[in-house]
Amino acid sequence: MIRALFIILFSISLLMIACSKKEEGPNMKEGKWEITFQMEATGKLPFQMPPQTFTQCITKKNVIPQNIETNKDCKVIKEELKGDTVAWSMECQTPDGPFFSEGTVTYKGTSFNGVGKMKHSGVEITQKMSGKWIGECK
Asked: Pfam families, alphabetically (predicted)?
């Protein structure tokens, strides 16, 4: 009888712990982020661009860093969250035809690091990215 009661109480405790799990999402502070991209291309036309920096409001519902102005013709086709790492695939429309990209970012509270890869017309582009939280979104 005591053993059965112990098993029931233990099971209820495990259920309460599982149900009390706090918010889903990576370890990241929601708000305004300063994001820096460094792009390098290989293939037919190798080149390296100077770093580009912009800001974006990032939330746990919108965790993919992207420059909205330059990616206005892009849509996310897959997004996956594992711990503090977000992985995605994206399709973009350009005058030269569609291209696909994929990337990962790992959040560390108020910073992140990641990499993205794209292929288009025989050119492979690697984007190294980093970000830091700079304040609240307005």
From this structure: DUF3617
